From TrEMBL:
Oxidoreductase is among the record's keywords: yes
Ligand binding (FMN): R65, T66, V67, L68, L69, K70, F80, S81, R86, K87, Q144, S145, W189, R199
Similarity comment: Belongs to the pyridoxamine 5'-phosphate oxidase family.
Annotated protein name in UniProt: Pyridoxine/pyridoxamine 5'-phosphate oxidase
Pathway assignment: Cofactor metabolism; pyridoxal 5'-phosphate salvage; pyridoxal 5'-phosphate from pyridoxine 5'-phosphate: step 1/1; Cofactor metabolism; pyridoxal 5'-phosphate salvage; pyridoxal 5'-phosphate from pyridoxamine 5'-phosphate: step 1/1
GO biological process: pyridoxine biosynthetic process
Cofactor(s) annotated in UniProt: FMN
Binding note for cofactor: Binds 1 FMN per subunit.
InterPro entries to which the protein is assigned, alphabetical: Pyridox_Oxase, Pyridox_Oxase_CS, Pyridox_Oxase_N, Pyridoxamine_oxidase_dimer_C, Split_barrel_FMN-bd
Length: 216
């Protein structure tokens, strides 16, 4: 059994001294993502999406899961999923979300806060069309987040849709598509020795960004 309390990694990264008010946080994100690929991080686009739902008692209940980033530019961060899934229902009711990436090979993390908006239908359809056929069929077969009696039930649904779409293109389900999260805040975290990490947070002020340095 690992002694998890004693498990410690000492981080040594480039500091964020070069980051200043003229830095575009989206450009910086892209360069960190590229560096994460180069450093050999598996699936560097994998990110956590946190949502929050109000329970019947009015108490907020956050939840988090992993998805893949599929596009990023100055308009925001895009991911795709099932609009009827738990996250889908939660985002539609309460679109304030938080995102997070952690790239261990570089001791780097990025956090984003923003309000999710559905991407255009055409954008969802174009991305869906680029997916492997198996994943397209999976999107039809899986009522994501619904309870299943057995795995066999899912495999039977997959076989059924495979038959249904045999010999033709698989269209994008109405209930499947993307959200874009324009960042209201983006934080870059670089691990440093002695837990004296570097943290820089950009907050959106109108059309420009404000830069804040945060204690680790
Ligand atoms: C590495 C990784 C990537 C994933 N990518 C996606 C994705 O892009 N879209 C998606 O809907 N689910 C993705 N999932 C599955 C989700 O984490 C989650 O199980 C699913 O979306 C249901 O979440 P929900 O019940 O909160 O809606 C991924 C899981 C992992 C571990």
């Amino acid at each position: 059994m690992h002694d998890i309390a004693a498990d410690r990694v000492e981080y040594h990264g480039q500091t964020l001294d070069g980051v200043n008010a003229a830095t575009s946080p989206y450009a910086l994100f892209r360069s960190w993502l590229e560096a994460a690929y180069e450093a050999g991080n598996p699936e560097p686009t994998a990110m956590q999406v946190a949502t929050v739902a109000l329970g019947g008692d009015g108490v907020p209940r956050p939840s988090v899961r992993t998805v893949l980033l599929k596009e990023v530019d100055e308009r925001g961060f895009v991911f795709f999923s099932n609009y009827r899934s738990r996250k889908g229902r939660e985002i539609e009711a309460q679109p304030q979300v938080a995102l997070q990436w952690y790239w261990p090979a570089l001791a780097r993390a990025v956090r984003v806060e923003g309000t999710a908006v559905r991407v255009d239908r055409q954008e969802s359809e174009a991305y869906f069309a680029s997916r492997p056929r198996g994943s397209q069929l999976g999107a039809w077969a899986s009522q994501q987040s619904a309870e299943l009696d057995s795995r066999a039930e899912l495999l039977a649904a997959y076989a059924r849709v495979g038959e249904e779409f045999r010999g033709r293109e698989v269209p994008c389900p109405e209930h499947w598509g993307g959200w874009r999260v324009p960042a209201g805040a983006i934080e870059f975290w670089q691990g440093e020795p002695s837990r004296l990490h570097d943290r820089v947070r950009f907050t959106r002020e109108g059309t420009s960004w404000q830069l804040h340095r945060l204690a680790p």
